[in-house]
Amino acid sequence: MSRAVQRPGGAAPKRTEITDDGGEFHSYFDSPELRNVHKTDKTSDICPVCKSSRYLNPQMKFLVNPECYHKMCESCVDRIFSSGPAPCPIAGCRRTLRKAKFRAQTFEDVFVEREVDIRRRVAKVFNRCEEDFETLLDYNDYLNDVEDITYNLINGIDVEASEKKLQGYAEANRQLIDDNENRARKAATTYAARQAQVKEQSRLRREANMREEERERQERLEGQRNIINQLASRDGDAEQIVREGQIGLKRRHKTAIPDRRKPSASATKAEDGKLLYRGLKKKTEVEPERPFSPYAGLRIANEYSVVQDHYDAPWLSFAWQDERYLAGGFKIGDFYSRVFSEAFAGLSVFVDEEVAGRNLTGSFSATEGAVAAADQDVNMSDDIF
Amino acid sequence: MHLNEDAKYRTSTQFRYWNFTPDSLASLRRNTNRAAVERVKAAFDRRRKARIAADKAQNGGEVTVVSELQTKEVECLTLEEEQKLLGYYCAQCLKMGKDNFKYPANVYYMKRFYLFNSPMTYHPKDILKTALFVATKTENHHQDLDKYCGQIGGKKPTLRDDVLAPEFILTQALRFTFEVRHPFRAVLPGHSQSAVQLQQALLSLPQTSGGPEIIHEVHQMEKRITEAHSIASDRYLKNAALLTDAYFLYTPSQIWLAAHLLADEPLTLFYLDTKFTVAPGSNSSAPLKTRVISTIRSCATMISNGDTPSQPTLEERAELTRVDKKLYQCRNPDKIDLIGLNKAQKRDATMDGKLEEGLAKKRKIEREKQEKEADDFWGPPLPNTGAPG
């Protein structure tokens, strides 16, 4: 997917305005004359407006305006457009340009430059990602649509309709587009942070390795010095002494090797882990926690009664006045609601109809007959069931 | 999702396991009786054969005397006799609950138990004490077992084992569902609410003859409501309704309204009118209301039929005695000694509370080992059940 091509400099002003005269614009771009102009301009270092050349002014910078992509030098832009919008100074081009829109040309080919601009503009609007879709097929369909629009805009096919589509989508999904943009930005920052972390880790690893190597080198030097000292001080066969010393050195070296390798091995493993993670699907955003509902949203809606705060019931008056009850957490309201729910529970449940089809022996094969057949009288756990 | 009162009732175990149609209830009892008769006969048959075999062995292969007891076919209780007996014992249970614990006992543990078991298998006298004990536990009237044994009295002193031995059998037969939805508590709001609503209705009447009279009427009305409430709950709900099959066939709200209907019909109908108010224009709940009222009426009929004096008449008593004697002859011999069966069910069944010496030692070692292992950091090893993995 080339739609997410990043501008290397990143300093160019972003284009937010949408041109609404794409059709005309394109026919202008299609003219062979302009093609020739641009092709001949490609190698030249001469500003087509003021004819000053880079040879005389090495600091000269060429700018283009995405309205018409005519190249001119910075001083010309300053001169012509400082006092507000003005028509393009190139002969035959009557477009009104603004100074703010001028920017440095990234690609030498003005057509590539334009395509990248269009792609960027479309990608800014159609910024869904794969996680938003249920299946890969859906996502591919979406990408196909987007590519159709982009292609049409670039090549001037049905430009008006495509523009309308683009704008309609942008209007309809403004919130979503903003959200996706935020998400992408966040992802970019976390990615950068992760990269920094990886870098830091590898730096630490490298330092540790270097320290380790340094230590080893020191040891080796010391060992050699020892051999020399022994040769100087001890009597006996010099070769023997050298051999002994070398064996000691080797042994030390051998023990040192795993020490040195170990951290690096585990580090590559960790790095491998990181690499593995990179390809994984990103976590979906955690939804804000809903208020806890013990019965998963099940609501109790009494049909036959509305429980009031207080009933003038003499048999209850002791309860809501007695501290012994209240201290224990007794709530008269709970009692009311329980009692009312009991009073009408099953009022319009007609047992003889609802129970009619029930298979009694099937659900509960505990009749005595079953037991008699089983003939396991003494084993009482089999008595009933 | 909304959950109204009816839906709430449908989630209860009472609705799921213990509500029946009249037909299914009758057929269930018939089946239970038939199965029990078969079992009793089979058990007697087995015993008879065993005895004949023993006689043969004793007398050198010759059957000398065939006693009458050995040839006579055992006569079992009919369904009607069973029900009579159960009715008596349920009334006894209720009376015991009221006398000893000042609350209407949960007779329905008994009734539920004998849906799937016959008095010929487990004598109601044995089950009664346990059912009452379990009921005291589940209905917030718990008594210490020793205290309970002392309290329920009887000719023979009740022992702990008498109460505990059938407890698991009972619990199993109850399908471990202990909730019985009573209408007692439900009748309270009916009272206070109908009072409130009647007051409102009366106060909204056009005042023609002056204030004091109306207030007077309100007082009278309150008196009437209180009376109806006390009749409904004391006379019907705490007696007749418990002894009939109402809990099997109707919902608690229908039962209390039926009792209320018996106590004061116009008042109850007025109250029901306020519950099924129809929005003007729609005619949706009118048939529902008539259905509810007809259900309540049939429930009321059932309760009033069961509203008999608590003491049986002389003829009834004679009949009960006859049935009880008959039951004495046809009890399932395998199930008479419940305490013994209960003990046999337990590990290392002992009859006199003492284990064999070797076994006791083995148990002690096992226990000590277990305690030691429990102190390990990861606890004792998992038992090897032979499962893969």
From TrEMBL, chain A:
Segments of this protein annotated with the region Disordered: 1-23, 199-221
Gene Ontology BP annotations: nucleotide-excision repair; regulation of transcription by RNA polymerase II
Molecular-function GO terms, alphabetical: cyclin-dependent protein serine/threonine kinase activator activity; kinase activity; zinc ion binding
Keywords: Kinase, Metal-binding, Nucleus, Transferase, Zinc, Zinc-finger
Residues covered by the RING-type domain: 47-90
Keyword flag Nucleotidyltransferase: no
UniProt feature, compositional bias: Basic and acidic residues: 200-221
Gene3D superfamilies in alphabetical order: Zinc/RING finger domain, C3HC4 (zinc finger)
Zinc as UniProt keyword: yes
GO cellular component, one term: transcription factor TFIIK complex
Pfam family, one: zf-C3HC4_5
Cell compartments where the protein resides: Nucleus
PROSITE patterns: ZF_RING_1 (PS00518), ZF_RING_2 (PS50089)
Main localization of the protein described in the UniProt heading: nucleus
InterPro entries: MAT1/Tfb3, MAT1_centre, Znf_RING, Znf_RING/FYVE/PHD, Znf_RING_CS
Protein name: RNA polymerase II transcription factor B subunit 3
Species annotation: Pseudovirgaria hyperparasitica
From TrEMBL, chain B:
Keywords in alphabetical order: Cyclin
Gene Ontology molecular-function annotations: cyclin-dependent protein serine/threonine kinase regulator activity
InterPro entries named among the record's database cross-references: Cyclin-like_sf, Cyclin/Ssn8, Cyclin_C_2
Repeat among keywords: no
Skewed-composition ranges (Basic and acidic residues): 345-372
Region (Disordered): 345-389
Name under which the protein is recorded: Cyclin C-terminal domain-containing protein
GO biological process: regulation of transcription by RNA polymerase II
Ranges of residues in domain Cyclin C-terminal: 198-304
Classification via Pfam families: Cyclin_C_2
PANTHER family, per database record: CYCLIN (PTHR10026)
Keyword Membrane on entry: no
Gene3D superfamilies: Cyclin-like
Stored SUPFAM superfamilies: Cyclin-like
